[in-house]
Amino acid sequence: MDLKFYYAPMTSASRVHWALEELGIPYEKVKLDLAAGDQKKPEYLALNPNGKVPLLVAEGRPIFEGLAILLYLGERFGTDKGLFPPPNPDRAEAFKWMAWGAVTFGEALQRYLRNSLDRFPEDERSPKAAEAAKNDLASHLAILNEALEGKEYLVGNTFSFVDISIAPAIPFLGRFGIDVSPFPNVNAWVARCIARPAFARVMQG
Ligand SMILES: N[C@@H](CCC(=O)N[C@@H](CS)C(=O)NCC(=O)O)C(=O)O
After folding, report:
1. Mean pLDDT of 56-82
2. H or E stretch covering 58
3. Degrees (nearest 5) of the Cα angle 21, 108, 130?
4. CA separation, residue 132 to residues 46, 108, 129, 174 (Å)
5. Domains of the chain
6. Which residue of 1, 16, 22, 135 has the fewest CB atoms within a 10 Å radius of its CB?
7. Is residue 63 within a helix (H) or strand (E), and if so which, with residue range?
8. pTM
């Protein structure tokens, strides 16, 4: 199997990195220096015209979008290893949470960052929009907290790529002024997920 993974540490590529490490299958890593603009070089743009990480060249085919890569890896390799549900209602639930994380939760997070981080020009930021996004994130965290009531993991009560697709965003929220302390189930779940040895390997870069 030929898998080539293009990434940068501490970015949205970390989810894919984590999934690959959990699978324990052979793959080649290519680290990009985003500050140096590696992601905008013509040879990379030929594979990913978005000029972003992650990218997985899988069996000769470039796949961009972290969610798409996680779904591919899950179906192709994860089910056999107990890391992605088989095609039964648990898989539908996996799709539900993974789509929610990338689209609903992800949209509110992007909107919050876009309107609050000083890396964006001040006249393109709106404190009101940032506040609205912060409230939306709190509502989304409440939904996640409720879904985790009495459960260790999101789907099938076993660790899976579903958890990988959402959990890494939570510690990141705290660093940007979102209070996660009112959501104890979420915090306990994140702690369980990131205690895994595969996550520690991802943090090494
Ligand atoms: N929707 C994309 C987002 C990818 C993305 O925004 N990647 C960022 C790192 S977190 C990136 O490569 N930024 C470099 C740039 O925009 O130049 C995905 O999930 O794969």
Report:
1. 98
2. strand 55-58
3. 130
4. 38, 9, 5, 17
5. 3-83 (3.40.30.10), 89-196 (1.20.1050.10)
6. 1
7. strand 61-64
8. 0.96
- Reading the block at residue 105, the tokens are 């939760």
38 touches ligand 1 (CB under 6 Å): no
Give the atom of ligand 1 at the shortest distance from the alpha carbon of 12: 10
- Which atom of ligand 1 is the closest one to the Cα of 54? 20
Measure the CA–CA gap between 185 and 146, rounded to whole angstroms: 8
Query: Any idea how long the chain is?
Result: 205
Q: How far is the CA of 68 from the centre of ligand 1 (A)?
A: 13
pLDDT digits (tens, 9 = 90+) for 99-125: 999 999 999 999 999 999 999 999 999
Residue 151 Cα to ligand 1 midpoint, Å, equals: 31
Using left for φ > 0, alpha for ψ between -120 and 50, and beta otherwise, residue 157 falls in left
Radius of gyration over every alpha carbon of the chain, rounded to an integer in angstroms = 17
Extract the tokens encoding 73: 């890896």
Nearest CA to ligand 1 atom 12: 52
Query: Contact at 8 Å (CB) between 201 and 140?
Result: no
CB distance 52 to ligand 1 below 6 Å: yes
* Cα atoms found within 13 Å of the Cα of residue 129, Cβ hemisphere only: 16
pLDDT digits (tens, 9 = 90+) for 169-205: 999 899 899 999 999 999 999 999 999 999 999 999 9
pLDDT tens-digit readout, 131-157: 999 999 999 999 999 999 999 999 999
